[in-house]
Amino acid sequence: ALLLRAVTAPLRQIVKNAGDEPSVVLDKVKGGKGNFGYNAATGEYVDMVEQGIIDPAKVTRSALQAAGSVAGLMITTECMISDIPEEKPAAPDMGGMGGMGGMGGMM
Question: What's 72's domain CATH number?
Answer without folding.
Answer: 1.10.560.10
